[in-house]
Amino acid sequence: MSSCPIQDFSLLQPGFVDPEQTSPFWNNKADNAWQLTAATMVGLQTVPGLVILYGSMVKKKWAVNSAFMALYGFAAVLVCWVLWAHRMAFGKRLFGIVGKPGLALSESYLLSKSTQGCFPMADYVFFQFAFAAITVVLLAGSLLGRMNFGAWMLFVPMWLTLCYTVGAFCIWGDGFIQKYLIDYAGGYVIHLSSGVAGFTAAYWVGPRHSHDRQNFPPNNILHMVGGAGFLWLGWTGFNGGAPFAAGRITSLAILNTHVCTATSLLIWVSMDIIVYKKSSVIGAVQGIITGLVCITPGAGLVDTIAAVVMGVLAGLVPWYTMMVLHRRLAFLQCVDDTLGVFHTHAVAGSMGGLLTGFFAKPSLLRMMYPDSLYGPGFLYAISDKKLKDGLKQIGIQFAGAVFITLWNAIFTSIICYLISHIVNLRMNEEDLEIGDDAAHGEEPYALWGDGEPDFAVILAAAAVTPA
């Protein structure tokens, strides 16, 4: 992490405002500007990125509901984050796995020096909120097309509180594995947890309507590609913001992110052509996502050649689990994971965490975490004759994946059980046949339902329009 050098204010003349009031010595303006930019880019991945992606990737009758689930999740997480969740994830320890709940609203707190980086605490709160929000919305991808919106409204704050804050505190805060587990930007905290929790919640909510499950074409492929584009380019802030400084690790992480993603896309499309004799735009989008997810745990900690290798595996392994293994295993078949979040996030995220334990370069680890206890990547442990240290780090990466998986599976189940005693988790069958109009009284293309203008709506609008 970068230090915070004292700035020289000796040239200021009398009459200027006290610089300590506007820019204290610890505030690095370049880091501050970059962190706010990175946080905004992560926010754009969700709104509009995932809002557009979800709204266009589902069947037309679920476009509004799917986009609205993402929009609501983003807003609800922000309110919960500043009221109690931020300090549970990054505050003082309550137990070994979670911090004390508390407000992140006061001027004295938000304008003080951040615990990470050389900028105000408000930057850190906002950046970490954007991470929390996208995690919840990624999870929603498993539940599209059937979850009762009222149940989703309860699910978001409960899951944020009982699941996300625990993973963030344990790995990034002051938790019991923070000093040992390598997770650069959220392969475990964000992607493994959202993939496992989404799959678990999908089990409890139940499958989509049988007709939807058999026939669920995207309603707008071009918009889907646009949403994926927001996700891809926004990952510049996702992995570029993790060092909390505009330094060398930031630059490497951004390059590695895009190299891995491009490689994964090419591999996924190639597999589609080899096996199905036809390239698929939906497949390309899945390849983008798995590449982004796989590189995230080690983006600034591995060489770029390792990022290429990770991209190859990110295109191959999730493709196999989604396109082959999923169809052969009854366990996977019995859970209706609408957008395959388990494969694109749980599989790719856990694989990225293990590969980081293999490829993490000691010099980059020291640059990023000068006071850490992280062992070298297994590849470098072999060359440096520190095999025991390399095996230990791989073991820690595996144990961390098991912990995040079990915690999210258990507590997501508890949350769904509790909510089911308040409201129905799933929409009723009649509403499932209708979709958006039943859930919200709205349709995505209101004036052009089936290719014909709705003259009743047009005439009604004209009647109330002033002359």
UniProtKB/TrEMBL annotation:
Recorded GO CC terms: plasma membrane
Membrane topology designation: Multi-pass membrane protein
Keywords: Ammonia transport, Membrane, Transmembrane, Transmembrane helix, Transport
Record field: transmembrane: 33-55, 62-84, 124-144, 151-173, 185-206, 218-237, 249-269, 281-299, 305-326, 338-360, 394-419
Pfam families: Ammonium_transp
PROSITE patterns reported in the protein's UniProt record: AMMONIUM_TRANSP
Record-level GO BP terms: ammonium transmembrane transport
Domain Ammonium transporter AmtB-like: 33-445
GO MF, any single term: ammonium channel activity
KW Mitochondrion (keyword) present: no
Main location: membrane
Compartment(s) where it occurs, according to its Swiss-Prot or TrEMBL record: Cell membrane; Membrane
Protein family: Belongs to the ammonia transporter channel (TC 1.A.11.2) family.
Protein name as annotated: Ammonium transporter
Organism: Cucumis sativus
